[in-house]
Specification:
The protein has one domain (2-245): NAD(P)-binding Rossmann-like Domain (Rossmann fold). The chain is 42% helix and 15% strand. It has helices spanning 21-32, 46-53, 72-83, 106-134, 156-176, 197-201, 203-212, 225-232; strands at 12-16, 36-41, 59-63, 88-91, 138-143, 181-188, 243-246. The protein has a 7-stranded parallel sheet, sandwiched between helices. α1 crosses α8 (225-232) and α4 (106-134) runs parallel beside α5 (156-176).
């Protein structure tokens, strides 16, 4: 039956940055589909732990700053030791810095690039090595952005990092498909999360954004649950190197 291809029963997913927002929504969606979850966050994700516990799935909470890539091998070693195997990686952890490009600081550049793309690459590399050692393939889902397609304003390092996410997703798909590893990305549109709080608080800017979204609303964490479950499941086995926009129609406008 086709619905069996969407089941993630018995799978283990690593989800970074799942304490709030889209990461929390994706972690919960994966758990509801049958996954046990390894959450990697800079803080203890208390609410996420409670909500995933309510699904009956296991949740292993690991605390780390992924902008320091040296922590990654130990994190993955702990995840495998506790869970036995890994099947899915969702590279969601990310930050944004807003400042006019003419004044943009080197720190704001490095902070964003280190977390949003450098850690994505090295997390993917570490998990792919585990997938290959297991001999079972796996799924990697990166989180891109509307700014993987567009330039935006006042977020130069965010635009650069999310454009890189789309490119690296394609490259990794090209190299790792032979190992049964699917690498794809989700590009959320304008979502009601911490990253967009400033935009939503600006009434004029918020109205400008909403007027261009055919769906007529900001997205929510529940809007990315279906796409991440699909890309994590056998139903997407022949999809590789693709970025799915979850944007309410923004790019079609």
């Amino acid at each position: 039956m086709i619905l069996d291809n969407f089941s993630l029963k018995g799978k283990v997913a690593v989800v970074t940055g799942c304490d709030t927002g889209l990461g929390q929504g994706m972690a919960i969606g994966l758990a509801e589909a049958g996954c046990d979850i390894v959450g990697i966050n800079i803080v203890e994700p208390t609410e996420t732990i409670e909500r995933i516990g309510a699904t009956g799935r296991r949740f292993l909470s690991l605390t780390a700053d992924l902008s320091d890539t040296k922590v990654i091998p130990a994190l993955l070693e702990r995840a495998v030791a506790e869970m036995g195997h890994l099947d899915i990686l969702v590279n969601n952890a990310g930050i944004i810095r807003r400042e006019d490009a003419i004044e943009f600081s080197e720190k704001n550049w490095d902070d964003v690039m280190n977390l949003n793309i450098k850690s994505v690459f090295f997390m993917s590399q570490g998990v792919a090595k585990q997938f290959i050692a297991q001999g079972t393939g796996g799924k990697i889902i990166n989180i891109a952005s509307m700014l993987s397609y567009q330039g935006g304003i006042r977020v130069p390092s965010y635009t650069a990092s999310k454009s890189a996410v789309m490119g690296v997703t394609r490259l990794l798909a090209n190299e790792w498909a032979k190992h049964g590893i699917n690498v794809n990305a989700i590009a959320p549109g304008y979502m009601a999360t911490n990253n967009t709080q400033q935009l939503r608080a600006d009434e004029a800017r918020s109205e400008e954004i909403l007027s261009r979204i055919p769906a007529g609303r900001w997205g929510t964490p529940s809007d990315v649950m279906g796409p991440v479950v699909f890309l994590s499941s056998p139903a997407s086995d022949y999809i590789n190197g693709y970025t799915i926009a979850v944007d309410g129609g923004w790019l079609a406008r």
